[in-house]
Amino acid sequence: MNALQHGVIDAHHHIWRREDLPWLIGPMVPRIFGSYEAIRRDYPIAEFRSEAETAGVVSSIYVQTNWRPEDAVREVAWVESAATDPSWPSAVVGFCDLGHPGAPLVLDRMRAASSRLRGIRQQLHWHENPEYRFAPRPDVMADPQWRKGLAAVTDRGLLFELQVFIGQAEQAAALLRDFPSTCFVLAHAGMPEDMSAMGFRAWREGLARLSDHPNLATKLSGLGTFVHRNDPDLIGRIVHEALALFGPERCLFGSNFPVEKLWTDYRSLLAAYLAALAGQTAETRDAVLSGNARRLYSMADSCSSPASAADALP
Question: Taking the complete model, does pTM exceed 0.85, yes or no?
């Protein structure tokens, strides 16, 4: 059975008001996804929902969009107010600077501001190419104060979205090992930025190292980030390798809209993922396109349990 008959859950998308995001208001700067003039505008939930529903999506998960760090609580409160339907989005991933001593208090305020809060993303990706860097330094994951903040995330039943390059796999694997009770979700399949034969091999080796840890799942999302196009062949290769390493119970689809909207429409993007999954069983397609997202973002403490598509959406 085609998983679309069950309805797709988009596990990674954004909405925003331009006025809230310094990176959209300020001057254009080089970014990993190229020129972004077309999305330097408001992108409301109604627009996203219209695009996603037309493609067969029934629910979604919002992921933070880099408001000012001091506005972390205001961000999730705004998303809560903008969500006029329980399924759009059904879950929220907010931001918190986990290295700040006040992080536990911020997390508590975020939970009070949004009943949909299910996780935290603090982007930790660091690269030898300065234009690819986001974290302030390469060793944030090893910082004792930051790790206290991560423990506070776990204590509150939230998952952590881990956004790193595969070149950081050694540090990331140490983090996964040291926090076995934390549910981690790897953003954008480890951000494969080099698809040469050597680069692809390095990405797969790093991904294999991370997949050894059962408390990590991976998002199949953002795969046009470095090629700046919807590439079904590339998506197929990455989906195939991720499924082989993580298994169908630890992979989940995300559109990364409206960033991917820079070079494609929603239906075409989802079609590329459906093509990549065409040879899989109905159970695998259902897990990747809906079941895993439902499980992970409804019950953040069960990320190493088998996926169940029978669980009801929150």
Answer: yes
